[in-house]
Design a protein that fits this description.
- This protein has 332 residues and is mostly helical.
- The chain has a single domain, classed as 3-Layer(aba) Sandwich (Rossmann fold).
- Helices cover 52% and strands 5% of the residues.
- The protein has a 4-stranded parallel beta sheet with strand order 2-1-3-4, sandwiched between helices.
- The radius of gyration is 22 Å and the shape is globular.
- The mean pLDDT is 90.
Length: 332
């Protein structure tokens, strides 16, 4: 009898705790934390422009590789059509990037994707930045997911984030402030403070520390590669949906800080050599080679994907030299 009451009590306690967690989770929706405010500011600027532009337009889509390393003004001047840079943060994952960009794409648009290498894997694990942003800044995205995906957010919400959200933290900085804030973007969505001359002493010290860490870290994308990773299927399906709507998708390599292992390690070398054909095998056009868009450390701002303002212009010119005329140019 005691055993029966014990298990009944345990079951009731577990159900009660689960219900309490659901209530507390629901209280988090739309309650941001300061760490992700810059992403919300960036998306507000970029999506408003994407919504306002006439088609055909050019949409640059990736993580912060696009944010820092593409000169959208130069693309606009060269191709004669408006450009919006939707790049924000690769940590939000491929699913988020593709799903949230699709509503802003219209027939005749060109989507240019300098996709970061980890995004080809489309790892389904949730990370703190994705959880913080979606729960606090974009709860409609969470509501748009299937029940299984929503449950993953519920069960993987860290207790620390729960307490932070309940505490209603206020960011002491004014809106738009900070190295990554909304004020750092131009009207097309490019980051415009990736220039050491524009930084205050505290920002310069932070960027110098991040740059030193980037130089010391060697990424092993080749060894992390999984040929059957879900990202390949998602890219193929995304391309097919765009094709059906008369939208063009081009993939290109991202700018990347060069490392000796990319040349010396046979696994790493083969990964970059074979990537373009693997993408083309999905039916997706891929222009350029990864080897052509690796640059020395001095060209980078604070991460292995973030070019300085000067290097960004050179990179965009080199990228344009690898690209054909856009489809909308043929009809002009």
């Amino acid at each position: 009898m005691r055993s029966r009451f014990y298990w009944l009590g345990l079951a009731i306690a577990l159900v009660g705790l689960s219900m309490l967690w659901l209530v507390l989770f629901a209280a988090q929706l739309g309650q941001p934390v300061p760490e992700t405010r810059w992403m919300a500011e960036a998306y507000a600027i970029k999506r408003a422009r994407a919504q306002s532009l006439p088609s055909p337009k050019v949409v640059v889509l990736a993580g912060s590789s696009a944010l820092f390393s593409i000169d959208s003004g130069l693309l606009e001047k060269t191709w004669g059509r408006p450009v919006v840079n939707l790049g924000v943060n690769a940590a939000l994952g491929l699913d988020y990037l593709l799903r949230t960009a699709e509503p802003y794409l219209k027939p005749q648009d060109l989507v240019l994707m300098p996709l970061e290498y980890p995004l080809y894997q489309a790892d389904r694990r949730l990370n703190a930045q994705l959880i913080d942003h979606v729960i606090g800044q974009d709860p409609d995205y969470w509501r748009s997911l299937g029940w299984g995906e929503r449950l993953r957010f519920i069960t993987q919400l860290p207790a620390a984030r729960l307490l932070a959200g309940l505490g209603r933290q206020e960011d002491p900085r004014p809106p738009g402030a900070g190295l990554y804030g909304g004020n750092a973007l131009d009207e097309r969505g490019d980051h415009r403070r990736n220039d050491w001359a524009l930084l205050d002493p505290a920002e310069r010290a932070a960027v110098a520390s991040a740059h030193a860490e980037a130089r010391a870290k060697c990424h092993t994308y080749g060894r992390q590669d999984r040929p059957n990773a879900p990202g390949w299927r998602r890219l193929r399906d995304f391309h097919r949906r765009l094709q059906a709507r008369g939208i063009t998708l081009w993939l290109v390599p991202p700018a990347l800080m060069d490392q000796p292992s990319y040349h010396q390690d046979p696994i790493e070398r083969r990964y970059y050599q074979t990537l373009p054909e693997r993408v083309r095998a999905l039916g997706i056009p891929f222009f350029g080679t990864p080897e052509s868009f690796r640059y020395p450390p001095e060209d980078f701002f604070d991460t292995p994907y973030h070019l300085t303002a000067q290097a960004r212009t050179r990179h965009t010119l080199a990228l344009l030299a690898q690209l054909p005329r856009p489809p909308f140019a043929e009809s002009q």
